[in-house]
Amino acid sequence: MKPNNNQVAAQAKPAKSTNILYNPTFRSVVFQLIAVLALLAFFYTIVNNALTNLSSRGIATGFDFLSQEAGFGIGLSLVEYDETHTYGKTFIVGLLNTALVSVLGIVFATVLGFVMGIARLSSNWLVSRFAAVYIEIFRNIPLLLQIFFWYFAVLQALPSPRQSISIGEAVFLNVRGLFFPAPVLNEGGSFVVGALILGIIATIVISIWAKNKQRLTGQQTPVFRIGLGLIVVLPMVVYLVLGMPISAEYPVLKGFNFKGGISIIPELAALTLALSIYTASFIAEIVRSGINAVNHGQTEAAMSLGLPRSKTLKLVVIPQAMRIIIPPLTSQYLNLTKNSSLAMAIGYPDLVSVFAGTTLNQVGQAIEVIAMTMGVYLTLSLLTSALMNLYNRKVALVER
Q: Which CDD domains does the record cross-reference, listed alphabetically (predicted)?
């Protein structure tokens, strides 16, 4: 009797090996584990040799220096600091100053970049040419030169404190910086701040609800007017009802500089201006390309429904363009954060200047100081990427 086809196939099929070494999944895990261990051993050898060499030369290692007194002042500090604080506090001050200029730069560059990117596509010849000239000039001049321009050619050319450019008796601009009144919370002032925070939270919640309502019913809610009432009118009403519990501390000229109020040092202003204007020129091109990538039929369909150009851009074009804009926009945010390290050129007390500069020169522990500085920039970059990726997933198309 002849064997059937199933019996022939079963005889021709090789027996499955039971040896785990021939399992491709197991081998891939083993090889990756070996690669990781080899990489860790490589770095351990380098660090161990470096620490051994430093110890043989009598150079201290470790992070004990963070608890030692710094002994130097810092021109700008968002937290309480003086010469008696530790090197660990200088690290925190430098970190906060870096985060401050990075956040300010990202906000201003985003707003300016979107405005210029949309203006580049304007049907008005003058507006379009102005945006094109701005983009071509500022993105082709090195950032360091732009920082020097704003600091030395513009801000350092301002008058001395005694000849300040003033707006009334409240705002003063001079070579030492910009000075304006600082709010002072008296009894009950915290309720006004609480009303402002509550208004912002309520506006965000209403905005999310309005978007879901529009998606389900097509009906729009005047979120802007509601938010204006919650953020501006509500705190103002609380402020008046409680008898105006917030006063102002005005800057006063004492000696060679102003005291009191809030001051913006020229180093911060120059760095923020340069970073914002430089990065905005790249963001503008990203926005322009993202808008051009949206099919023109979308615009024609929206306008055929009677939507004005402003609402067509806001409700139809920009939401679709954002899916293209966000990935390269994230790269520009990362570049801005890393480019903020150029602050050392004009003396802005960021992390590189304060910690990797002055602190390193005093303690001499290069490995620890540089490693901490690199870790900060890596963390800031990863955090920015994580937030942008989260937003990118929210606006991405969902396939069904």
A: TM_PBP2
Cα–Cα distance measured from residue 79 to residue 89, given in angstroms and rounded to the nearest whole number: 9
Is the pLDDT at 382 greater than 70? The verdict is yes
Of 236, 260, 256, nearest to 181 by C-alpha is 260
The helix or strand, by DSSP H or E, that contains position 264, with its residue range, turns out to be strand 262-264
Cα angle vertex 299, ends 296, 305, to 5°? Answer: 145
* Number of other CB atoms surrounding residue 318 within 10 Å: 17
Cα gap 60→88, rounded to integer Å = 17
DSSP one-letter code for 283: H
Average pLDDT over residues 180-187: 89
Phi, psi of 16 (to 5 degrees): -70, 130
Three-point CA angle 62, 68, 69, nearest 5°: 155
Position 277, amino acid: I
Do the Cβ atoms of 320 and 342 come closer than 8 Å? Answer: no
- Tell me the C-alpha distance between 133 and 284, whole Å: 12
